[in-house]
Design goal:
Blueprint: H1 2-41, E1 46-47, E2 51-58, E3 64-71, E4 74-75, E5 86-88, E6 99-102, E7 108-111, E8 124-128, E9 131-135, E10 146-149, E11 156-162, E12 171-179, E13 184-188, E14 199-202, E15 209-212, E16 224-229, E17 232-239, E18 248-251, E19 257-260, E20 273-277, E21 282-286, E22 297-300, E23 306-309, E24 322-327, E25 332-338, E26 347-350, E27 354-358, E28 371-375
Antiparallel strand pairs: 1-4, 2-3, 5-28, 6-7, 7-8, 8-9, 10-11, 11-12, 12-13, 14-15, 15-16, 16-17, 18-19, 19-20, 20-21, 22-23, 23-24, 24-25, 26-27, 27-28
């Protein structure tokens, strides 16, 4: 009788064990499925609470951008996704305030920038299918400069800087050209006005570059713009509607140049925007962004809309995670998808299949090496 009892106990234990195994075999895959898909389908709002960071960009010409950031606000996106960026390969050298451009072979060139020590850097890298590769250096170090590729992709223009090789922090007018065919940099004609923290945009003719705003060698913000045409710099008679530095600009499909954000360097961040009409050579104010952004990027999407990415709101001490879309038809902005991490003084480049954003600063003492990718 005792043996029969043990047999029954063993039978019940076996049934319980096999039942639990069967339940686990069914529920574990389901849990994994729902976890994965809940992350993809999760919607905002997202509470970024009580995260305090400090960053400082010190220019020895007297302009200091110091950000003590407490993200205690809810940021809401109208998207059906929580974030739209995937973490991608890291730069070899962390940097902010640098230049980037898409080359004809599909690679992305990044040049110069500020290192952790706040010193200008002459080093460059290219983004390939295997990641970031170290490339040839510029003729001199640059930070707070611009890099612009011409339509025929036979050359890339790098201009301006805060300090350059003199390490003084005073804006310079020096320019140089990168020749992709020989993987080399050569000196070019200087700009009429020394400037840093400005923008340069290739116009629709494919050979003219528009330079706007920034800080000059006298430590003043400027509204004066100039054009680079056939190796020469020509100042414009018209000025921007607002004095600004640390802003962004991009060529729209209609031939106008959208200029947005930035700040006065005191620090105050702007949400205002304007467009440059290449035909009339005039600047016209348009609708303001919903977030103030300094050190942002603007990227023209295949849809014709413009994506505003990142930046720092120095006025409220926050980094906007929410991106915005500019509609050139209505000349207004709307909320778009969200970044994984707040960043400013980064760079963003549109390729055939994705938007790549990389580097910058997120309020810590170190420059970012991380890059994020949005698949179109």
């Amino acid at each position: 009788m005792y043996k029969d009892f043990l047999k029954k106990i063993k039978r019940y234990l076996c049934i319980i064990i096999f039942t639990n195994i069967a339940i686990l075999a069914i529920t574990v895959p389901l849990l994994v499925y729902f976890i994965i898909h809940s992350k993809n389908d999760e919607v905002t709002p997202v509470n970024i609470s009580n995260t305090t960071t400090t960053a400082e960009n010190q220019l020895t010409n007297g302009f200091t951008t110091k950000i003590s950031t407490t993200n205690n606000n809810n940021q809401t996106s109208t998207s059906t996704q929580l974030v739209f960026w995937n973490i991608d390969k890291s730069l070899n050298t962390g940097r902010s305030n640098f230049g980037s451009v898409l080359l004809a072979n599909g690679q992305v060139l990044v040049a110069g920038g500020l290192l952790n020590s706040n010193t200008d850097y002459s080093g460059t890298e290219v983004y390939t299918s295997t990641g970031w590769q170290v490339a040839t250096s510029m003729t001199g170090p640059r930070g707070f400069h611009t890099v612009t590729a011409f339509a025929n992709n036979t050359k890339v223009l790098a201009a301006g800087s805060a300090g350059g090789s003199n390490a003084s922090g005073i804006s310079i007018s020096a320019a140089e050209l990168y020749i992709p065919s020989s993987n080399s940099f050569i000196n070019a004609t200087n700009m009429n006005i020394a400037r840093c923290c400005f923008t340069s945009t290739l116009l629709s003719d494919g050979s003219t570059v528009l330079v706007t705003g920034g800080i000059n060698a006298a430590n003043s913000l400027i509204t004066i713009a100039e054009l680079y045409i056939n190796g020469s710099w020509i100042p414009l008679s018209s000025s921007m509607t607002q004095v600004r530095a640390y802003h962004a600009a991009v060529l729209s499909n209609d031939g106008t140049v959208l200029i947005a954000g930035g700040g006065s360097g005191t620090p105050n961040a702007y949400s205002s925007a304007e467009i440059y009409n290449a035909t009339t050579q005039n600047f016209i104010a348009v609708g303001s962004m919903q977030y103030r952004r300094g050190g942002l990027t603007l990227t023209l999407l295949p849809s014709g809309k413009v994506l505003a990415i990142g930046g720092a709101d120095w006025t409220s001490d926050t980094y906007p995670l929410v991106c915005e879309l500019y509609d050139p038809v209505t000349r207004t902005w709307s909320n778009a998808l969200m970044l994984n991490y707040g960043r400013s003084f980064h760079q963003s480049v549109l390729t055939n299949t994705f938007v790549l954003t990389m580097g910058g600063t997120n309020g810590t003492s170190n420059r970012l090496t991380s890059s994020e990718k949005y698949n179109l």
